[in-house]
């Protein structure tokens, strides 16, 4: 019985009128956790009741603490009839279970009803007293920290990155139970919300257990998804990267991704710029393995693509002795893992040695009803949703969801091997479901990693060796990890344009963020490939077969589009590539988004050449040359727009056997696209059951046109789908996160692939144009982390959901700010001297033995010390005086911490962050909570992670017209979801959500019945941030107050 | 390809001031789009009409959702659904409660009832303000009226506290509420030359001096005191005003008053002879207005009477404003020298306010 949960219901406000006669409400509250329920008194006749209840205490074991949400129901008391529910609040108490996160949840929560939306607010205080658990066989994993952020969180240091963790749980979907026929929509929605909340709690706990087994203490890049499989059930699955994290206590930390490439790398003990013997190859074609096999339960495993690069799998054969050594060691480190996958997209410096290319695998499955006879009977009970782990329940059945994923992961692993890589980074999984067909997809970037991070102390000798070969240019990750001599397709390799020693491919595709140390020329831009393919309506296996037959073509065409668009932009690498294939009743949609950049290490991309099939026709020739000219003009214009002007390098300097500078891509005009492609496929099929798609051609004028119709963003706008835009680093603090949803109805007449493509293309382009227009007041501005999601809710409907953040940057002040930073830092250095006395104190506390787990409470929480230093300043850390200053700063923070803590430790302290510019007219009590899909907040330092936010909401209406139609309904719902996320973050004492993601937005309407329903699932990390400007101002005036920001961590007890 | 659904939701609610104005002005989405196109925004931004349409729809939807909160501005501040920076919140409220001069002149002093609401059609046609906008403005007046009607304390403070308006706007609303409560006639043809500002000025003076709140004495028995401090005129005061009648009824007093004024102003007034000739008429007019204020009907006609009895006669004789000022100052001051007159305090309370009002009302 290791935990006591305490809940206090303080007050309510803005309650709806429940009694028409009096225009008032007699409200009371039910507080439920597990099977225990408490009630407050009825507060008569008020819309702003003050319950001020006693502390309700629940004595529960920590397993339940992790699984169960706290459920608060506000009701209207009715003497004569049943009490009416006003709404509910679900509070995930998980953040209270880590020692470093929040200590109390306290604040105003919107009261939410699935039919009416938000109906007033309730003020709740929640605390947990955890007792030490000595049971070794425990089922809970309290204390394992979860982060959605796909990089090492800012105020932590990665001691070890253990690797991939995954888990899934399955249940029946309450919406499809027999009981749903007799219960109200509200009851059904609430059952679903509660079930998913339970399932995700359980999932998280199980993942936590796995992490503990691996001796880790945290999960980074935690991604949890729901598959609403309809009749066949509800799957909640999650993947993540297990790590051992240390709170940072030294300034030599990983830089926030927002900052310019670090130059203080030498200070970091972890930095070993990668290098190895000269070996290199080229690449960029696609490697697609088709392993179509039909089992009796029908499963088609389809095209697996390896974008970029292709190795024989005979890694280590070639290359210098060092490379072999490195490979061996990495291999040994990784071989112990079933899947050497990492969900991270940004890495500690030195972690990523080489990048091979994108690997992806898809598989088409037919959904079966999940056999779970045990469930059906007990659904009605209070303890109804007894969750079953699919693994254990059906462990003897091979065709489980788990097995499906295992299969796909295996495939990914082998593709990575084929590229000479041992690991897959930037790994993600997704599904698309339509009726009983399900496409499972997995995607990642094959890479060679530095084993230093994967296991403790295995690489000491090797390290030194490597350090001697130190390459400062940061081009190492571009160097090919596979063998030059063993490539099954015409490859195009050159010597690296940065170091001139090793081979690089001419184009590089990856799913990760741009490494901070990569040298990029000019700016980047969002590149999208969009594609629709009609498909006949079919049932079951025929349908699945049809889909799996279409998939390779779609992958191929999307790749071609990406490649052509990349060249059109004059760029040579794609980062953050995300390929989404969505299945509908009568069509398949493909959307690939990535951020194109020009990597200095890679060769200048060739242009695009159009070749006609009938070269003798004069007018035709003219047309072709006209098109050619247009394309060349566009390339030139783009180069100017994105400021791509690489230094000219004469061929002699490179002095390598560079193949003739032929144009890499040609758009071949051909009328019979399919037959053409089939030839291509056959051609390559002979080799290793893989086919290679030559990218040097594509079909039809349509494609050329679509290339040219992509309008660049208006001036002052940039966009990318990675964390940050290369080439821009003077971000201001003005950010605007948004979600935009569009649904279009296709006219069902004469739908052709071409018309469909055009519609889809227009939809995406118009959406982007609308965004640019709406955000025009933020110019100059960059849309970052632009995330498109496509779904096909019905036959003729296409839904596109975009979430992104617009960040304003300062065009002119880049130079100025660095200057002032430098000045300030000098100033600070002098004021800091007086603090030097505190050195010894700090050093003692710092050298306390730290165990990887449990996270030592005594760890000094001076994590922000690194973050306290502005980026520009950090660049200059080379001078000794700054080093001293940095140290002094750290120490000061650590040592004075206790004196100031309490001020901000409680959520009441939130006020400090808020309302800096209070309105003249009013005393607003609502604090600002920022939301961003990025892992950082520009111009600010994250000082504390408060826990993961993972929320699932259902909203339904039976009065669609009255609520403003579908747009009004969804607009209100999304606004409500934002509000609830903000309220939860504020209650945890935070002022921002980072790595925010809307994982699902399932919208269904039935206008004839005046009904609509929507499901939204969002997640992110609740954090506390402090403005850099605040950090800077304080020390100059009053040095000791400087520690305040870092003391936000709630160590009230110290 | 038709757009079924098209929304944009920002973590910080986007407010476009121009679109907000169009929405407040009651334009439909299509009219608003047309107006925006005309403003040249497409050329400036390179956007298409479709983009503009979608943007306008979005903003309209947002405003529609915000409207419920704007009805009780403190709610806007405390709500959690829309994250809006405080300065923007203030702007939203201020603009929402702003009103058109032309409109307010039409309804000023009218009962804020359903009957008046029905007339909004005509007002809309007459003023060229859209019916939607008229309704919003009317409902705003009514809402403010309802909320502060039963409240004690300063009218302006109450309005400011419950509607978070700027000082300026709160004062205007106080005037509107005051006029509506006392039902002053402002629509007569004679009064058409007066602006809302003129009336608001008078309202403020009257609230400051002629209401219960103005006396500054807290009601001795709070339960018996049903009148609102600032909204209703001080009944006792109005009753007392009858006493002033002696100033014109008593022939000697009137003559003495006249001679005092004439002596003081001789040579100082450009229109001295006209003043001398008209003194008795003017004085009778002003005093009779005071004496009649016991009747509600006459209270309502206060401004009509003032214009008829004082403004018009002076204007027909082409008195310059400065002469009017000199005259009124002297006229009120001289009463202090009338030994037989015992109601000096009452006179000052009446004339002090009236003088201010008359000076404001005296223009073309």
Automatic annotation (TrEMBL), chain A:
Q: Where is this region: Disordered?
A: 652-682
Q: Where is the C2 domain?
A: 1-109
Pfam families assigned to the protein according to its UniProt record, in alphabetical order: C2 (PF00168), YbjQ_2 (PF23025), YbjQ_3 (PF23028), YbjQ_4 (PF23128)
User: GO MF terms on file?
Assistant: calcium ion binding; calcium-dependent phospholipid binding
For this record, the Gene Ontology CC terms, alphabetical, are: cell cortex; centriolar satellite; cytoplasmic vesicle membrane; cytosol; ruffle membrane
- Name residues in a coiled coil: none
Subcellular location field? Cell membrane; Cell projection, Ruffle; Cytoplasm, Cell cortex; Cytoplasmic vesicle membrane
Against PROSITE patterns, the record matches this protein to: C2 (PS50004)
Keyword Transcription on entry: no
Which Gene Ontology biological process is one annotated for this entry?
Answer: positive regulation of vesicle fusion
Query: What UniProt keywords apply to this chain's record, in alphabetical order?
Result: Calcium, Cell membrane, Cell projection, Cytoplasm, Cytoplasmic vesicle, Lipid-binding, Membrane, Metal-binding, Protein transport, Transport
Q: Does the keyword S-adenosyl-L-methionine apply?
A: no
What this protein is reported to do is described as: Required for insulin-stimulated glucose transport and glucose transporter SLC2A4/GLUT4 translocation from intracellular glucose storage vesicle (GSV) to the plasma membrane (PM) in adipocytes. Binds phospholipid membranes in a calcium-dependent manner and is necessary for the optimal membrane fusion between SLC2A4/GLUT4 GSV and the PM.
Do you know which PANTHER family this protein is assigned to? C2 DOMAIN-CONTAINING PROTEIN 5
Report the protein name in the record. C2 domain-containing protein 5
Q: Which organism is it from?
A: Prolemur simus (Greater bamboo lemur)
* Annotated gene: C2CD5
Automatic annotation (TrEMBL), chain B:
Annotated Gene Ontology cellular components are:
membrane; nuclear speck
A Pfam family annotated for this chain is FIBP
Q: InterPro entries in the record, alphabetically?
A: FIBP
Q: Name one GO biological process term.
A: platelet aggregation
What GO molecular-function term can you cite, just one? fibroblast growth factor binding
Source taxon at top rank: Eukaryota
Q: What is this protein's record name?
A: FGF1 intracellular binding protein
Per the UniProt entry, what species is this protein from, by scientific name?
Prolemur simus
Report the gene name. FIBP
């Amino acid at each position: 019985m290791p935990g006591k949960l305490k809940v206090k219901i303080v007050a309510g406000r803005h309650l709806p009128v429940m009694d028409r006669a009096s225009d008032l409400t007699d409200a009371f509250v039910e507080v439920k956790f597990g099977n225990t329920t408490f009630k407050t008194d009825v507060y008569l006749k008020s819309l702003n009741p003050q319950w001020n209840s006693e502390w309700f205490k629940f004595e529960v074991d920590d397993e339940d603490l992790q699984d169960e949400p706290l459920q608060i129901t506000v009701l209207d008391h009715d003497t004569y009839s049943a009490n009416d529910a006003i709404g509910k609040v679900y509070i995930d108490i998980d953040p209270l279970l880590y020692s470093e996160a929040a200590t109390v949840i306290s604040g105003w929560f919107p009261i939410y009803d699935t039919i009416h939306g938000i109906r007033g607010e309730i003020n709740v205080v929640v605390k947990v007293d955890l007792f030490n658990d000595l049971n070794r066989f425990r089922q809970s994993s309290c204390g394992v920290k979860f982060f959605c952020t796909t990089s090492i969180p800012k105020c932590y240091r990665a001691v070890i990155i253990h690797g991939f963790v995954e888990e899934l749980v399955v249940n029946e979907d309450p919406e499809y139970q027999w009981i749903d026929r007799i219960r109200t929509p509200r009851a059904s929605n609430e059952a679903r919300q509660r079930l998913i909340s339970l399932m995700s709690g359980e999932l998280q706990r199980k993942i936590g257990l796995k992490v503990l087994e691996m001796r880790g203490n945290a999960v980074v890049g935690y991604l949890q998804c729901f598959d609403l499989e309809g009749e066949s059930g509800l799957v909640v699955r999650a993947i993540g990267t297990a790590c051992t994290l240390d709170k940072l206590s030294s300034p030599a930390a990983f830089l926030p991704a927002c900052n310019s490439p670090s130059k203080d790398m030498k200070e970091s003990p972890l930095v070993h710029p990668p290098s190895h013997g000269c070996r290199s190859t080229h690449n960029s074609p696609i490697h697609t393995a088709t392993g179509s096999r039909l089992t009796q339960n029908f499963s088609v495993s389809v095209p697996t693509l390896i974008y970029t690069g292709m190795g024989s799998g005979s890694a280590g054969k070639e290359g210098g002795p060092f490379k072999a050594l490195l490979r061996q060691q990495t291999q040994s480190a990784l071989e112990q893992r079933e899947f050497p996958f990492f969900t991270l997209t940004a890495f500690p410096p030195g972690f990523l040695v080489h990048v091979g290319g994108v690997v992806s695998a898809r598989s088409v499955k037919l959904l079966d009803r999940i056999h779970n006879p045990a469930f059906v009977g007990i659904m009605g009970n209070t303890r109804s949703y007894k969750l079953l782990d699919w693994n254990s329940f059906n462990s003897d059945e091979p065709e489980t969801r788990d097995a499906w994923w295992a299969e796909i992961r295996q495939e990914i692993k082998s593709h990575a091997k084929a590229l000479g890589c041992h690991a897959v980074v930037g790994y993600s999984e997704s599904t698309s479901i339509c009726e009983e067909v399900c496409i499972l997809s997995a995607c990642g970037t094959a890479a060679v990693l530095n084993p230093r991070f994967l296991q403790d102390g295995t690489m000491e000798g090797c390290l030194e060796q490597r350090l001697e070969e130190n390459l400062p240019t940061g081009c190492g990750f571009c160097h090919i990890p596979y063998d030059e001599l063993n490539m099954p397709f015409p490859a195009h390799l050159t010597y690296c344009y940065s170091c001139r020693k090793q081979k690089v491919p001419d184009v590089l595709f990856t799913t990760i963020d741009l490494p901070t140390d990569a040298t990029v020329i000019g700016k980047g831009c969002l590149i999208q490939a969009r594609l629709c393919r009609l498909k006949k309506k079919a049932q079951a296996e025929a349908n699945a077969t049809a889909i799996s037959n279409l998939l390779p073509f779609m992958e191929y065409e999307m790749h071609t589009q990406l490649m052509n668009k990349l060249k059109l932009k004059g760029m040579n690498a794609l980062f953050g590539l995300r390929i989404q294939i969505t299945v509908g009743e009568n069509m398949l949609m493909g959307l690939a988004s990535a951020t194109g950049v020009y990597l200095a290490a890679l060769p200048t991309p060739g242009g695009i050449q159009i070749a006609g099939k009938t070269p003798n026709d004069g007018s035709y020739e003219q047309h072709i040359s006209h098109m050619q000219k247009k394309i060349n003009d566009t390339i030139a214009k783009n180069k100017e727009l994105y400021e791509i002007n690489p230094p000219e390098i004469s061929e002699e300097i490179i002095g390598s056997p560079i193949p003739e500078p032929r144009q890499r891509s040609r758009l071949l005009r051909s009328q019979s696209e399919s037959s053409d492609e089939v030839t291509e496929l056959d051609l390559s099929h002979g080799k290793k059951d893989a086919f290679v798609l030559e990218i040097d051609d594509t079909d039809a004028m349509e494609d050329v046109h679509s290339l040219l119709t992509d309008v660049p963003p208006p001036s002052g706008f940039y966009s990318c789908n990675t964390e940050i835009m290369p080439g821009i680093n003077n971000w201001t603090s003005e950010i605007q996160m948004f979600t935009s949803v569009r649904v279009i109805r296709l006219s069902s007449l004469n739908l052709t692939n071409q018309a469909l493509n055009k519609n889809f293309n227009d939809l995406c382009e118009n959406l982007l144009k609308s965004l640019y227009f709406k955000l025009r007041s933020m110019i100059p501005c960059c849309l970052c982390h632009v995330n498109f999601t496509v779904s096909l809710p019905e036959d003729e409907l296409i839904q596109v959901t975009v979430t992104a953040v617009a960040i304003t940057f300062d065009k002119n002040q880049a130079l100025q700010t660095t200057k002032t930073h430098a000045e300030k830092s000098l100033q600070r250095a002098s004021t800091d001297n007086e603090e030097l006395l505190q050195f010894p104190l700090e050093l003692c506390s710092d050298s306390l033995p730290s165990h990887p787990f449990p996270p030592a409470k005594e760890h000094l929480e001076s994590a922000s010390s690194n973050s306290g230093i502005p980026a520009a300043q950090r660049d200059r850390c080379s001078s000794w005086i700054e080093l001293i200053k940095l140290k002094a700063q750290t120490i000061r923070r650590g040592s004075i911490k206790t004196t100031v803590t309490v001020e901000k430790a409680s959520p009441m302290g939130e006020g400090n962050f808020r309302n800096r510019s209070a309105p003249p007219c009013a005393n607003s009590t609502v604090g600002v909570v920022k939301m961003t899909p990025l892992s950082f907040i520009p111009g600010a330092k994250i000082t504390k992670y408060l826990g993961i936010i993972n929320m699932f909401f259902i909203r339904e209406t039976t009065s669609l017209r009255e609520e403003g139609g579908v747009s009004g309904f969804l607009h209100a719902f999304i606004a409500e979801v934002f509000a609830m996320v903000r309220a939860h973050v504020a209650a945890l004492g935070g002022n921002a959500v980072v790595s925010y993601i809307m994982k699902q937005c399932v919208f269904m309407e039935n206008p004839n019945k005046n009904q609509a329903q929507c499901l939204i699932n969002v997640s992110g990390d609740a954090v506390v941030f402090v403005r850099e400007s605040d950090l800077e101002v304080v020390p100059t005036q009053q040095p000791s107050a400087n520690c305040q920001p870092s003391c936000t961590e709630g160590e009230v007890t110290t | 390809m038709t757009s079924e659904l098209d929304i944009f939701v920002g973590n910080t609610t986007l407010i476009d001031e121009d679109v907000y104005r169009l929405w407040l002005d009651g334009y439909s989405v299509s009219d608003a789009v047309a107006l925006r196109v005309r403003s040249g925004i497409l050329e400036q931004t390179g956007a298409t009409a479709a983009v503009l349409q979608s943007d306008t729809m979005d903003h309209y939807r947002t405003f529609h959702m915000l409207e419920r909160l704007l009805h009780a501005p403190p709610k806007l501040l405390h709500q959690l659904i829309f994250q809006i920076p405080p300065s923007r919140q203030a702007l939203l409220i201020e603009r929402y409660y702003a009103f058109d001069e032309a409109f307010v002149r039409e309804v000023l002093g009218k009962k804020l009832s359903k009957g008046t609401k029905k007339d909004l059609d005509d007002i809309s046609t007459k003023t060229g303000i859209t019916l939607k906008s008229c309704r919003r403005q009317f409902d705003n007046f009514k809402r403010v009226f309802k909320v502060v009607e039963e409240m004690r304390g300063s009218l302006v403070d109450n309005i400011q506290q419950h509607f978070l308006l700027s000082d300026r706007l709160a004062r205007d609303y106080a005037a509107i509420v005051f006029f509506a409560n006392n039902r002053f006639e402002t629509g007569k043809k004679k009064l058409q030359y007066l602006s809302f500002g003129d009336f608001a000025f008078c309202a403020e003076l009257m609230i400051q001096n002629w209401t219960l709140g103005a006396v500054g004495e807290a009601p001795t028995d709070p339960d018996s005191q049903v009148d609102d401090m600032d909204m209703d005129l001080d009944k006792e005061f109005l009753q007392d005003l009858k006493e002033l009648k002696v100033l014109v009824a008593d022939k000697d007093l009137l003559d003495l008053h006249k001679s005092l004024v004439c002596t003081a102003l001789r040579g100082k007034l450009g229109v001295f002879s006209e003043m001398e000739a008209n003194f008795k008429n003017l004085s009778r007019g002003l005093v009779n207005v005071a004496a009649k204020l016991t009747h509600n009907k006459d209270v309502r006609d206060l401004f009509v009477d003032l214009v008829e009895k004082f403004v018009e006669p002076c204007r027909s004789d082409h008195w310059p404003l400065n002469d009017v000022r000199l005259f009124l100052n002297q006229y009120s001051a001289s009463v202090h020298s009338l030994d037989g007159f015992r109601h000096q305090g009452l006179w000052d309370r009446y004339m002090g306010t009236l003088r201010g009002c008359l000076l404001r009302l005296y223009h073309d």
